[in-house]
Amino acid sequence: MIFGVSLLRGRLLVFCAIAMSALVLRLAVTSFSPLAAQISEEIGFSSTVVGVFGMIPTAMFAAFGLATPALGRRWGLERTALIAMLMAGVGMATRALMTDTWSLLLLSGLALGGMGIGNVVIPPLVKRYFSDTLALVSSVYIVGVQLSTIVPAFVAVPLADAFGWRVSLGVWALVGFAAAVPWVWVLLRHRNADTGEVAPVDPKTDGRVWRSPVGWGMAGMFGMTSLVTYSMFTWIPDILADAGASPAFGGAMVGLFALLGLVSAFGAPSLCARMENPFPVVVACASCFLIAFAGLWIAPMSAPILWIVLLGLGPSTFPMALTLINLRSRSHAGSAALSGFTQGVGYTVACLGPLLFGVFHDLTSGWTASFAFMTVAVAVLVTGAYQACKPRVVEDSWNTRPISVG
Which residues cross the membrane (predicted)? Predict the structure, then answer.
């Protein structure tokens, strides 16, 4: 009985740690963008540097996504999560104090690197501790990620108007440090033999995720979803402005697009868990994307809210992909490897989305080529999802063999 109570308390503590960590994973991105003009006026950097700031998130998510599985094997998942939250907190706190561009870039990279580690390490932690309630816990942390995207975007400017941009930029560090506290507690419990809990050790394997069609399917599904999503976040205001909409309306549509992510975050994980093969849901999401693209291309102001609602439902494949990381792996070690590969490769490709969308627009002086590019991305998404959604696990196709220790 005492052991059961202790185990329950341990799982509740980890649940709180995962939920709080999810609230950190986008703060450094959406707390900066609304303040870029104010910060530029004081520190003095060009619009090109603003573009560099825009590319850092996906670049850091990609680099640390690929590196995190090795870090997790070396340090353990819980300690890696703690380091991620401390990196995010320190980076967000110190960048708000900087007076030069390079320091601001470097410390933003530190914060985003921590968030990139967190992106990858949370799914295998869910797999390790909550394999019996994957859909529920996945929904909780994905909703947390969505909230960390939406809330700073809405409150950054009011905070800056009231207290200055440095306070507005740095206050989110408190969330990062708060999220580190339960991970410290988790590690302390694991070191206490009286609790009856022992931190599991990751099995050492030489599995190669890139040998697996599951891995490449997941990377294609996740990467193309991210590419389309980041492109639309960047270009919705310009697309609507070209059609005669006001800047305020364009901003409101970006907000609506972001808010719809909460709808999919609540429903998609449960749907994935209940379906042996959720590929039909992906096809429905792809259809939403394509109808929205056609509407925004041909007649953007004829029914703009409808187009944005459909566009916002398309990225339901994002929480689906995060949930499938656990559903398509047998162990938390497999989940960690699949998570790192999926997000590392996916975010690498996603970096190019907003840039190429704009390049095609500039080359053609219209949106036709840009939306053709988005259509190709959706085709790749569907192709990848066909492989990712099949009911199988990555460990069966990555040529794993145990490595002897010692």
Answer: 12-37, 43-68, 80-98, 104-122, 134-157, 169-188, 214-236, 248-267, 279-299, 305-325, 337-360, 366-386
| Helices 2-22 and 134-163, packing angle to 10 deg | 50
Walk me through the domains of the chain, giving residue ranges and CATH numbers.
Answer: 2-195 (1.20.1250.20), 209-396 (1.20.1250.20)
CA-wise closest residue to 125 among 87, 79, 85, 66? 79
Cα separation, 362 vs 364, in Å, equals 6
How many residues make up the chain in this entry? 406
**How distant, in Å, are the alpha carbons of 42, 130, 255, 341, 400 from that of 76?**
42, 17, 37, 18, 20
* b/e code 41-54 from CB counts within 10 Å (16+ = b): eeeebeeebeeebb
Average pLDDT in the 231-249 region?
A: 87
Which backbone phi and psi does 402 adopt, to 5 degrees?
A: -60, 145
* Average predicted confidence (pLDDT) for the chain: 87
> pLDDT tens, 8-55?
567 899 999 999 999 999 998 888 877 877 888 888 876 667 667 777
User: 4 pLDDT band (50/70/90 cuts)?
Assistant: very low
Say how far apart CA 237 and CA 375 lie, in whole Å.
19
Which has more confidence, 235 or 398?
235
**CB-count exposure of residue 168 (10 Å: 0-12, 13-18, 19+):** buried
pLDDT, tens digit (0-9, with 9 covering 90-100), for 160-195: 989 999 999 999 999 999 999 999 999 998 765 444
Chain centre distance of CA 16: 19
Query: Could you tell me which of 134, 128, 130, 138 has the C-alpha nearest to residue 201?
Result: 128
Q: Which two tokens stand for residue 102?
A: 């390079």
* Phi, psi (rounded to 5 degrees) for 205: -135, 165
